[in-house]
Fold each of these.
Amino acid sequence: MQDLSDMIYEGKQKIWSDYQKEIPDDNWFYVRSCIRQNFFPGSEKAFLDICRGDLGKDIFETEHHTTCGGIAYHCDTIPQETAMTIVARQFALMTEAGYDNYVCSCITSFGNYIETLESWYEHPELEARIRELLFKATGREFNKPKYIAHASDLIFKFRFDIAAKAKYNLINVHTGKPLRGVEHIGCHYGKMFPSKSVGGAEYPYVLCGMIEAWGGEVVDYPERRHCCGYGFRQYHIKANRGYSISNTRKKFESMEPFAPDFILTNCPGCPYFLDRWQYAISEMEGKTYGKGGYGIPVLTYEELAGLILGYNPWDLGLQLHQVAVEPLLDKMGIPWTAEDKYKGLDGKDLKYPELPHWMKCC
Amino acid sequence: MSKLYDELCKDWRFVEGLQTCINCGTCTAICPAAEFYKYDPRKIVDTVQRKDDAEIEALLKSDTIWYCGECMSCMTRCPRSNAPGKVIMALRNLSARLGYFVHSEKGRQLFPLTEIFKENILKYGYCVYPDTFSWEDHQESGPVWKWHTEHLSDSLARLGANWRGKGTGVLRAIPQESLDELKSIFDITGGTERIEAVEKYSAEKAAEMGLDMEEYFRKTFEECSECHFNN
């Protein structure tokens, strides 16, 4: 007769196996993110440089792909059929390029693509209708992707390859202890269709796996899974931004006692809000959440992977963060120069941003 | 059977989002909007499943359906596999189509949203693009972003972007033939019809309020009454 503890262990193994993803190794059709291109442009460049240059992978991009329409869709400005037909056009571009693995740089897009495919699976007549609409609008036809990944899934898959090439890691060079990170995976990565994400909604592991593989320690805190506060129309309309900052503030208040060294993010929108609202709260309340009057540095996963591999912080675009990242760079032992931070190409002088009233910046 | 309920049933999100609600309130407990606004997704789903035309019409004309942030946390937690967030999307879709959105302050915000995304998608091929993202309307993005927008071309060049450029890359110009395809998709799938409906109902409301469309845009983009909030 099987022991109860063995049964519990086997049960947990089965649950965990439901949340694993067999991510293909190579040959990806890549689509960009509206938000990431605007606010973290260095991150998309770093992703391609890492995948193509450091890891030798085939990642194909066509200039003809467009927005997936996800933000407009979740701001309720376009009908579902319009959003789905834009998605279908992206799939047609993938098909024409000869690929069947599809990787996107945005969590809203990831949710949009998965929702589309799941809806078509449940309602084949809807897929037939969208195929008809796409052909009528563009003359294009498409195959559905065999696999859809978020770009972080690839960095997660290759996290040990990156660790093997690491020039720096997540160990505090002053204390020898692991740096402590909080992670934020973004609602539409796992909350809508948990089986499509690494670790699902209950045990999301895509960012934890990176932090652990690169020497750091993941810090749990009560509001870890709370939304970053984007809320689509709750940010894009100026009158609604109280919703956004209130929800983000709730997370900061919850993580503050655990004194994280950094925040790592998955979705391109979340780092914008987690970074900018720290500044806004400091201006409104004089409150800062890092040590010594600084904020808590917020990174995209591409920025962190780039730092680990030894990329120049200012070529990654870390100067575009309002919260200074230098305290984290110092802990990782990464050299940086203030003179180079706000320069253009070939050292062109672009002057300096003004300083916030309360939050310290280097 | 309610006519408005029948209309909702034509929306796939409604079909997928509402099985049978047991009114447990789990969605409200997990909802970020319910903590901030006078908002209770449990009550909305309960109202809808009563299939009463007058109640659904009142909902479509209310601020209530516009409080949700569509994070879909409710979808994860519902013990009966409902998705109140998807029900909200179907309600908003119907409110937009019928012109009921102009009856509420939060509903009227659909006009500036529509104008923002219409321009960004059909002119640039992006939902957000530097040419239309003004620092003045987003001052919370801080002095660093002000600096970035003042040195946009140089700052983006340093990061390897291809802003307004040909070919692939970050913030490239989307080729005109691809923008033409997007426009065609909007025309054929109801996207253009939706834009025109929102603009038509908004113009009527602006006239009723004695505002020109620029004044109406600013008012709906910036106006925030205190009646919406908890506490």
Amino acid sequence: MKSIKQSLWAVLAMSVLAGACKKDEQNVTPTDDNEAITTATLQLVNKANASEVVTATIENLNTSADFSKATLTLKANTTYSGTIQLVNKTKTPTIDVSAEIKSEQNEHLLVYTPSVATLLTVTITDKDTNPSPGPYPVGLTFDLKTNAVATGKLNVRLRHQPGAKNGTQTPGTDDLNTDFSVVIQ
Amino acid sequence: MILISHSVRAQQPGCGATLKGILTSGVEQLPLPGATVFIRETGHGTVTDSLGQYQLTYLCPGRYTVEYRYVSFTTFVQRIQLPADSVRNVTLTSESISLNPVNVTEHRSEAQQLLQNQVSLSGSALDQTRGQSLGESLKALAGMYSIQTGPSISKPVIHGLYSNRIIVLNNGVRQEDQQWGTEHAPQVDQFLASRLTVIKGAASIRFGSDAIGGVILIEPRAMPSEPGIQGEVNVVGATNGRMGVTSGLLEGAFGRKLAGLSWRIQGTIKRSGYVQTPHYFLENTSYHENNVSGDIHYEHKSLGVELFYSRVDTKVGLFTGAQVGSLADLYTAIGRPEPLSQPEFSYDLQRPYQDVQHELLKLRTYWHSQGGGTLTATVARQQNTRREYDFVSFSGSLNPELYLQLITHTADLVWEHRTIKTARNGNWSGSAGFNGITQGNVRQYLFLIPNFRNYGAGVFAIERYAIGPWTLEGGIRYDYRWLRAYFLDEATKQPYNTTHVWQNVNGSLGAAYQIRDDLTLTANLSTAWRAPNVADLYSNGLHQSAVAYERGNPNLKPEQAYNGNLVLAYAGKRLSGEIGAYNNLIHNYIYLKPDSVPLIRQRGAFPAYSYTQVRATFRGIDASLTYKLSNRLTITTKNSLLFARNQTDNDYLVFIPPNRSDNSLRYDWNTTNQTRLSNLYVSVSGLYVAQQRRVPEVMARQENGQLIFTGDFAPPPPAYFLVGAEFGFTTQVGKQTMNVILTGSNLMNVAYRDYLNRFRYFADEPGRNISLKVKLPFSISQRS
């Protein structure tokens, strides 16, 4: 009987003390976001003059976004061919989110919406590989056609539509939803 | 005479038979107060009062084995037949006269030592809830509700309070499983419990700080004392979610040289697939649970040692339709009458899900001394590991978004002194003790709460005096809490920490007066406090599943509660029940207040919330009444009314349970003379839950082209009425008795939504569900 009791005590003492002395909580690990997008860049090339390149960038999207370089200054009644680059700078090395979206294109859609319909028109030029009734647009590359002189905003949304992509923005959830300023002169 | 009120409190939907009597000691024929009376078949139990009297009510007609136990007296076991043997006066012989080894009483519910407003589920009423989560099971009691996150996560709510304001005592150990989170369900195995007791109202004195709302005690069945091996198999199957649960238990006790040594092993497996609402399946609402536990108990003379281990492992799928990336998604989802994706049934469990393991290792020793009372020491270690996996869109990451590991060590020492008789035939009883706790928390991946270390210590004393129709109780407690949180400065990568210290003294006063044999009035006044927890203080992050950015407030003061309640209990021949009124005033009540400016992150706008303190009141009435229309037909009504208010802003509070009324009609066959079938009954029930109209005004406004709501995202759902039915019996399978219960819930397949379900914006509640519960106790050998 004694030995049973003694072994019970021993088991307890070991198991309780094993955890009690560690100070794991004092080693703080940095915040790690699997799916951060820190930087979004739009690059537009004038189709009539390839040397005319306009870029706009939003930094720190995952915290307090910096919009100081987020204005697209465009010419009226001009067509640009555009691309979007999305980057996660919280990881080392930085992650090219656009490339990850390209490889997961069958469940992603970028949606470009001007604040006023008459401001400009965006036409997506790339397609995914979804089977019929697909393929559907992806939106990593697009044509942007400006109208008359005006100012406004261009809203960019990245929709995640796993198993539900149908060419519209309705299904799924937002991975990115931000605004670039647009000045057409 | 308090006992009568206890047994009334332990009321449950049952039958009308009563067992009562007086326990006396053999030689002197003196009453034995504090002895336990326990029915083996049903798990019903009670404690004798100061005059040695006991009463067990709501028993069904049938044959029972009753155990009468008292420290240092020989346990007396008797077969009885109800309702014929409704009065049993028993004389126990002193251990010193008999030759048998000492059998120490462990049946007594810890809560029954307290003069506090309490209800419990045990025996057949507990069997009816088998297979459900703790939160859902306790809804069978008046004054209880549950706060849900979809169909698979349910947390108990006592009088409108939940999470950190409730203590769950699992097997005598304070459960610490990141309970601050609304979507963090208690990690306990229901099949281990033979009794679930809820103490309604502030009960900090005995069980520690934080219990502003109340305490839930999950108590296992007593360890076997007679040599042999026995067990029990529980099987539950349900149509909705095509759920299956199997739980097995094997236990035994040794005789001769190893007398006093007993053991138990137990395990539960639960699987459920997509839950079905009346019109569609809820994608990814699958549920996995695997639990094991083991218990070794040794007692010799007046000394006992118990080593207990349990592991609860759950994997809970979250409804995919409730996953939103931003506020815009949320409003789109709220605007949809039905979820966009409505797949067929599946057992699939994908992201988003929670994966949580909770381990408990406990060592308890106790010593009963003849003159000094009982001393119990408990040390325990709990390890809670929580991983939350969100949807991943593009990264293909296999890591969780949130990892939290909380390791808790607790140490408790309680001394219960021997009952002291006064000259006027009064009785003094009471206890005093110490509770110690330390916790370490480690986080990884996204930041929600920081790493921390805390220490807590408390000392308490409770004394009770019973004389004639009066019982008076007073308690006092002192608590000390120390908390240090560890952070990393993201810019400089330098670690830093902050420290808080709190202390507080609380007290309670209670009185019970037995007006008549069948009528008792009990009043309680108590104070309780809760130090702000680390989530209140330091939350700082996007709560994706709640679509909220939550900001902690390091300057919060402790919550202080003043709780009063009055309970009138009646146990008549036909009518019985109790009506209780309560008033809980909480100073510095901590809640999340919506900020006026939404926060912009990569996924768009999020409403921001900050932890704020106000003066809040929770007032209400619980009423449970049972009326026997005839010997076989019983009508039961359970009603809960709650009025909560933010007094500081003169407004209502969010997420307060609406009023509800649960009514049932039960017919029991008189099966006294039949051997094949017994305890045969059928019942129908109707549950009415009102629309919650006492809510902060839901307002919508435009801001930067975004629609922003204040108060809530959508108004509370309308009232609903659900019909249920149940049929049960006990039958003989060979020498064993098998208990079978067939339950149907939401039989009319009503599409409804519940205000306290955080996923109510997205989908309906589950539709019709038929479940079959079979319990088969067995015995392998009679003699070892």
